[in-house]
Amino acid sequence: MLRPAPPQPRKPDAAVARLATLIADASHRGNAWQYRDVTAARTAVRELETLKRFYEQVLEAAIDGVLTAEESGSILEFNPAAEAIFGCRRADVLGRDALGLFVPNPLRGQLRAIARGEGDGSGWEGRVETTLLRFDGTAFAAELAILPTVAANGPRLFTAFVRDVTERIHRDSELRLAKDLVEQSALAKQEFLANMSHEIRTPLNAVIGLSHLLVSGANSAAPRPSFPSLP
Predict the structure, then answer these.
(1) Which of 135, 182, 218, 225 has its CA 20 to 30 A from that of 113?
(2) For 45-61, what is the mean pLDDT?
(3) DSSP code at position 94
């Protein structure tokens, strides 16, 4: 006689899984159980974690140095490109004053006012070329963009995007110098040809005039004057 196969465990459907979630997050008060649906909250947490990982990957791969700080200047974020540009490690600058570390003294007041939302930001729209300081205090040419951010019910932050343009400015300077040399060479060539044309044309005019006299005298019945032969 064939024995019936043992019953297979049923996979929990969506309703059972949801009930399990509710039970797992239930709280007991006295003799009454209270249940709270935390599905949406857990979904929001997972989405925030995904967004956080994406944000960290973007910072890691960014070519520009990215620095985020509070309005007081306290550094909150410092990506690897910023480490390479400013010559320091992230751990060395977190919590320290960004303006005091990396901004020359004449610009600190203006940028601090912009960070606090007190300045109009005139002259700092978009990307601007300016001078910043490395961690060791040496100055370098930089392209800088500042993005103020105000979080809901939170502190005022600002994010600076920094690019070291020292090499680009050096190349541009060399190109301008080469262009000036080419233009000076072309001008000197024109002046040389103009002078040579004048120097050659003056004696040629005399030769052409004498030749014309000789030809005219050959066709005349009058006796031709004799000219000494040239050595």
Answers:
(1) 135
(2) 76
(3) T
Backbone phi, then psi, for 163, in 5-degree steps? -135, 130
- CA separation, residue 128 to residues 78, 146, 162, 167, 185 (Å): 20, 9, 10, 16, 35
| Region 148-155 average pLDDT | 72
DSSP H/E element including 189: helix 166-218
**Strand extents, DSSP E, the chain:** 27-29, 32-34, 65-70, 75-78, 128-133, 139-150, 156-164
Say if CB 104 and CB 132 are below 8 A apart: yes
What type of residue sits at position 167?
E
Q: pTM for this one?
A: 0.57
Q: How far apart are CA 95 and CA 104, in angstroms?
A: 19
Phi, psi (degrees; rounded to nearest 5) at 74: -65, 125
Per mean pLDDT, which range of 30-39, 48-57, 128-137, 164-173 is the poorest?
30-39
Q: Assess contact for 225 and 217: CB atoms under 8 A.
A: yes
Distance CA(79)–CA(68), nearest Å, equals 9
